[in-house]
Amino acid sequence: MDGLLRFLADGLLDAGATGVLIYTLATTHVTIVAVTVYLHRHQAHRALSLHPAVAHFFRFWLWLTTGMVTREWVAIHRRHHAHCERAGDPHSPRQVGLRTVLLRGTELYRTASQDHESIARYAAGCPDDWIERRLYSRWTWQGVGVLLVLDVLLFGIIGLSVWGIQMLWIPLLAAGVINGAGHGIGYRNYDCREAATNILPFGVLIGGEELHNNHHTFATSAKLSVKWYEFDIGWMYIRILEVLRLARARALPPAPGIRACHPAVDGATLRAVLANRARVMAALDTRLQPVWRRELRALRGAERKTALRLLRRDPGYLDGEERGRLGSVLAASEVLHRVQALREQLAQLWQRSLASEEQLKESLSAWCAQAAADGCAQMRAFAAELRGYA
Known about the structure:
Blueprint: H1 2-10, H2 16-44, E1 48-50, H3 52-65, H4 70-82, H5 93-96, H6 98-113, H7 116-122, H8 130-136, H9 140-155, H10 159-180, E2 202-203, H11 212-217, E3 231-232, H12 233-243, E4 247-249, H13 267-274, H14 277-295, H15 301-312, H16 320-331, H17 334-347, H18 357-372, H19 377-387
Parallel strand pairs: 2-3
Antiparallel strand pairs: 1-4
Helix pairs in contact: 1-9, 2-3, 2-4, 2-10, 4-7, 6-10, 9-10, 14-17, 14-19, 16-17, 18-19
């Protein structure tokens, strides 16, 4: 009897409170890494390739610790990108409310997983081997059941609490925080079409997924950090795997270099600009920040905040209501009206997909000449910088 009581209190390891805490944090972190590196970056976006042994370890670990099916998770995430913030998005705060996504993210995921037609449509390329069909996809709850038994064996009765935390970790942080707060709270480096935000510049707790605005802007990038002060721990693990020759990240167009005092737009300029819409528009907005703030100094509070948000919005992403509200702001300032017209003209460059390279180069050259002649010093400086892109 004493032995049984001792086992229930301490389990096989008799690890103590510190040992239990370390185990819980370590296992939940490995689960987060499996989600961000394997499910998200490798499977959903093909941003990197993984050695088969590494990929299978992550697949087994997710079966053991979450019971999630790879093809279901991948299909739901791809559908999210395909219909982001619109009807068809399986977990958009704009569609169902931030509170619903934060508190009921798991229910939204479960509902989406029952849409078999959608799963089949968006799950192309996911594992469909013997063990996937016979075990991982067929017996989804048995994995977490095995984990429950292991936790209790290792730590005794407290293992039930450890298992509960492991079960809540992904639903709370991924299904809730990332899908919820990551589309409503935080800062934005890029004005992508979606409402995605960077929750924090330090992507550690959720494997780098905190940098959600960066991800939606460069969805096929294995690296989610873009600023010098941002840290993506998921990318750190990918680099370690690359050094060990167990992974290879997909190559992406590099950030453009800038040639000093370059006199005219050439082919290198055009190619760099066309490949970097998000970076170009973000650089222009950074230049125009002092102009916007100076011209809006008469506004206060929410009115000023709304005006700044509309001015930062990429002109190509404005809807009818936003254009109407922005028009009222521009009507009060000739400078803002002129600068916004130049921003809209530049944004149209990426919409002329049927134009020849020579026509696009002429359009960009004309825009740079017009901006260089503008009365706004910041716009002139940006035109000189843009001509040097390569």
